[in-house]
Amino acid sequence: MTTRRTPLHLALLTAAGLVAAWLTFDPHLALGQHTGGTGTVSIQNETERQLFWSLICTCGCPRETLGTCPCDIAHQRRTALRELLAEGKTVEQAQDVYVSMYGPKSLAVPRNQGANRALWVVPITAIVAGAGLVFVVLRRWQRRGLAAAAAAPAGKKAQSKNDTRDAYDDRLDQELKDLDDE
Predict the structure, then answer these.
(1) Residue 59 contacts residue 35 (beta carbons within 8 Å)
(2) Does this model's pTM top 0.70?
(3) Over pLDDT 90: what percentage of the chain?
(4) How far apart are CA 145 and CA 154, in angstroms?
């Protein structure tokens, strides 16, 4: 079933597209972004890379990790984390300190422990259940098709095309013949 697009629908869709394009190409309008800093992120070793890429900058940037966010707040947090590493803390201990300060949403990937396991188990379970449902539905359709084919009379398949004619076909033939005669 198709719906008819009215001029109002087309105008609204065009306006929404123009607004989306404008916001895409004019990024200073994005709310919550901080500016400043050098615009680059300095990562000095693999331990820092592992730590910074595992934590989210919670300054209001669009969910960037400390490994990519160039704002001043991220720079200050990287400096504080470097001090923790200099004190001899491991990556996990530094993550724990950061999470205690900024909450569990500051982790780029939730830890696989406690209630967070549902974040890993539920999607996998849903995919397996969906695949099972598709399998069951396809098997039922196949069985119905086979049952319908078996229920059809064997003689009906052998009938010719002319045996299935009705009054409409006869009338159509007659009208075509009349057109040819003219």
Answers:
(1) no
(2) no
(3) 16
(4) 15
Number of residues that this document lists for the chain: 182
The span from the CA of 87 to the CA of 174, in Å, is 100
Looking at the predicted structure, is the pLDDT value of residue 124 above 50?
yes
Burial-class residue 95 by CB neighbours within 10 Å (0-12, 13-18, 19+).
Answer: buried
Q: Indicate the helix (H) or strand (E) that contains 174.
A: helix 167-181
In whole angstroms, give the CA distance from residue 152 to residue 85: 78
- Alpha-carbon separation of residue 91 from 70, 83, 122, 151 (angstroms): 21, 12, 28, 69
Contact yes or no for 81/52 (Cβ under 8 A): yes
Alpha helices, DSSP H, located in 26-166:
46-52, 72-86, 91-102, 117-151, 154-158
Q: Do residues 95 and 56 make contact, with C-beta atoms less than 8 angstroms apart?
A: no
43 with 49: CB under 8 angstroms? yes
CA dist 169 and 47 (Å) reads 82
Read off the pLDDT of residues 23-81 as tens digits, 9 standing for 90 and up.
666 555 544 444 555 567 777 788 888 888 888 888 777 778 888 888 888 888 888 99
When pLDDT is averaged across residues 102-122 and rounded to a whole number, the result is 80
Neighbours of 73 (CB within 10 A): 17
